[in-house]
Amino acid sequence: MEGVLVTGSASAELAGECARCLEPITDEIEVRFQELFVYDDQDYSSEEDDEVSMLEGDLINLEPLLRDAVVLALPFQPLCTDDCPGLCPECGVRLAEAPGHVHEEPVDPRWAGLAELQQDPEAPE
């Protein structure tokens, strides 16, 4: 008799990008929710609960309830696949498309000057 208990489920289509390789991903999510909306003639002090959902006349505003349920169900870092290797940190190539991707050993800038001194003995000067 305190209010109206709302129980339901909602589904939504998700669109975003993989957190590792930045490929576009789409998915569908379904969430369940339950909330008590109290009548506005009930006396609720702000000390009891700041998040009490109130009826607005004879209407129920489900937007905040649905938004909170969907946002809390979203993955923190969405991935295109569970084993997504991501991007190469040096050149940005997608490692799932080039699994054998390697780079030459980087030259230490402190020794780069010595490379000029090293010459092929058969090369003409």
Quick tags:
alpha+beta, 3 strands, 14% helix
Q: Can you give a write-up of this model?
A:
With 125 residues, the protein is of the alpha+beta class. The chain has a domain at 3-73. 14% of the residues lie in helices and 26% in strands. It has helices at 63-73, 112-117, and strands at 3-17, 24-38, 53-54. Strands 1-2-3 form a three-stranded mixed sheet. The chain is rod-shaped and about 100 Å long. It starts with a strand and ends in an 8-residue tail after the last helix. The mean pLDDT is 83.
- Which descriptor suits the 3D outline? rod-shaped
Low-confidence stretches: none
Largest sheet: 3 strands, mixed
Could you give the order of strands across the largest sheet?
A: 1-2-3
| β-strand number | 3
Mean pLDDT metric: 83
The helix content, as a percent range, equals 10-25%
- Amino-to-carboxy terminus distance: 99 Å
Query: What percentage of amino acids are in beta strands?
Result: 25-35%
Structural class: alpha+beta
The topology string of helices and strands comes to EEEHH
Per DSSP, the total helix count is 2
User: In angstroms, what is the radius of gyration?
Assistant: 29 Å
